[in-house]
Write a structure and sequence with these properties.
Layout: E1 7-11, H1 16-28, E2 34-38, H2 42-50, E3 61-64, E4 67-70, H3 71-79, H4 97-109, H5 111-114
Parallel strand pairs: 1-2
Antiparallel strand pairs: 1-3, 3-4
């Protein structure tokens, strides 16, 4: 697998809200092209080390076509791959990034309170899309 050609969502694997969001992506994706990696995985550690990128567990990252997106920019790029109406989230990308990242950070700080204790168990057909 050529990583430069992959779409990868990096998420906090210990976060119920984040796991539910991954489940939403799996259920609402137009084409099954996105791969997933928990930020705590050895794959993520190696990936970020090779990119000389600092890893923050409170941030969602999306790697697509050789570009790494973080926070709200990642959310907007992920939405490109989702079915209607979820892809409409992309409309907010026209707002200033400082504003959308502030909203993102507000939610990220409270993500463990929003949804506690959800464990993502991928279907057999989805397991190959998770990178560890």
């Amino acid at each position: 697998m050529n990583l430069e050609q992959c779409e990868i969502v990096f998420f906090d694997g210990d976060c119920g809200f984040c796991n539910r969001t991954v489940q939403l992506i799996l259920n609402r994706e137009r084409d099954a092209v996105i791969h997933f990696a928990a930020l705590q995985s050895s794959f993520a550690q190696t990936f970020f080390d090779e990119k000389n990128q600092k890893l923050d567990l409170s941030t969602v990252y999306f790697f697509s076509k050789g570009q790494l997106y973080a926070e709200s920019a990642a959310v907007f790029e992920i939405a490109r791959y989702l079915k209607f109406p979820y892809r409409m989230v992309r409309l907010f990308r026209f707002l200033p990034l400082g504003l959308t990242n502030s909203v993102y950070q507000f939610i990220a700080k409270r993500r463990h309170l929003i949804n506690k204790g959800y464990c993502l168990i991928p279907k057999e057909s989805e397991k190959k899309r998770f990178l560890s």
